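Quick one, T. Sequence first:
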Amino acid sequence: MSDKNEWKEIYKNFKFLYPNLMKETVGYCPYGYMSIMIYFSDDFQMIYNEVDKRGKIVERT
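Structure tokens:
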């Protein structure tokens, strides 16, 4: 991932791996190394880690 838009690429990979969840997303932001915080329309948040290819629901802060 040498592109300068690597966060966009991580989000693109998330949408590919989780197509059902993708429909409810409203945005994302960088979150640590190779991770993004994804925001859902129902106020849930998920941290998606590109290295592990896994998402983890977190409590709303």
